[in-house]
């Protein structure tokens, strides 16, 4: 519990987490407001959380900063001197950052969903009446938490803020889209890209009666929605475990 308290204090003692949380909420809820206000016909539940990825990328930047900032200012050395095994403080940091990311994700998702009720002309399809509906909204927090763990692993491996943020954003926003243009094998590779796969957890298997003809997300990947989340979380865990091994062996 002491390590958790220390990591919480360290995280909130800088301004960057506060700005990242506000930006994640503002982007997600603000863009949802624009979509809801201009949507014609019944707005489906997935329409209320369509912009969750913008907040996800900001939260992943926040998670990377949580570790790279310590390397930048050298505070990580004091932490490792106080706790020589190094693994315990890194795990405590992961717990704190993942909990915060999950809470921000839930706030962004339910905030977007609630605002959609206020702004959409037709809310007949917005009620959370099925397990899929709840997954579309409440599942955003799980994706944010897994994404934060992945970003922490990248940050611990790279140790530099610019490098870690660049890797996260370029991979998610550019590489996953560009890989689909590789002749012959591009589409097969793209189906297994982590951010592409985890999209199915939020958008997959919606109620077809709630989506106008020709609208809604395309079929994504080969896995079920929950299998897609497990795949993304598994990649995050692998990257983070590798980062723990490297942190343990490398000089701070």
* Cα distance spanning the termini: 24 Å
**Number of DSSP-assigned strands:** 0
Low-confidence stretches: 209-214
Helix content: over 70%
Q: Provide mean pLDDT, rounded.
A: 88
Derived from helix and strand composition plus strand pairing, the structural class reads: mainly alpha
Number of helices: 11
Strand content: under 5%
Q: Which overall shape is indicated by the principal axes computed on the Cα atoms?
A: globular
Number of structurally distinct domains: 1
What can you tell me about this protein's structure?
With 252 residues, this protein is mainly α. The protein has one domain. Helix content is 74%, strand content 0%. The chain has helices at 2-12, 16-38, 45-48, 52-73, 75-82, 87-119, 131-158, 161-178, 186-190, 194-203, 225-249. Helix 2 (16-38) packs parallel to helix 6 (87-119). It is globular. The model is unreliable at 209-214 (pLDDT under 50).
Task: Give a nutshell description of this structure.
This protein is mainly α. 74% of the residues lie in helices and 0% in strands.
Keywords:
single chain; transmembrane; globular; ABC-2 type transport system permease protein; about 75% helix; about 250 residues; membrane; mainly alpha; transmembrane helix
Topology:
Layout: H1 2-12, H2 16-38, H3 45-48, H4 52-73, H5 75-82, H6 87-119, H7 131-158, H8 161-178, H9 186-190, H10 194-203, H11 225-249
Helix pairs in contact: 1-6, 2-4, 2-6, 4-6, 4-7, 4-8, 6-7, 7-8, 7-10, 7-11, 10-11
């Amino acid at each position: 519990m002491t390590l958790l308290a220390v990591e919480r204090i360290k995280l909130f003692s800088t301004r960057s987490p506060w700005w990242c949380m506000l930006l994640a909420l503002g982007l997600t809820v603000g863009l949802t407001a624009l979509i809801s206000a201009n949507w014609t016909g019944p707005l489906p539940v997935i329409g209320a959380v369509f912009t969750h990825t913008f907040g996800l990328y900001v939260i992943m930047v926040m998670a990377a900063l949580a570790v790279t900032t310590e390397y930048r200012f050298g505070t990580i050395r004091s932490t490792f001197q106080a706790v020589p095994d190094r693994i315990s403080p890194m795990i405590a940091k992961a717990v704190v950052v993942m909990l915060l990311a999950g809470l921000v994700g839930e706030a962004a998702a339910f905030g977007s969903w609630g605002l959609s009720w206020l702004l959409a002309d037709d809310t007949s399809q917005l009620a959370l009446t099925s397990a899929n509906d709840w997954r579309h909204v409440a599942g955003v927090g799980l994706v944010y938490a897994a994404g934060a763990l992945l970003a922490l692993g990248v940050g611990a491996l790279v140790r530099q803020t610019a490098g870690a943020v660049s890797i996260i954003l370029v991979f998610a926003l550019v590489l996953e889209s560009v890989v689909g243009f590789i002749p012959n094998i591009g589409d097969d590779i793209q189906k297994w890209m982590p951010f592409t796969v985890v999209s199915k957890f939020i958008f997959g298997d919606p109620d077809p009666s709630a989506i106008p003809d020709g609208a809604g997300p395309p079929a994504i990947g080969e896995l079920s929605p929950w299998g897609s989340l497990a795949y993304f979380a598994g990649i995050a865990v692998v990257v983070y475990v590798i980062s723990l091994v490297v942190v343990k062996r490398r000089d701070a």
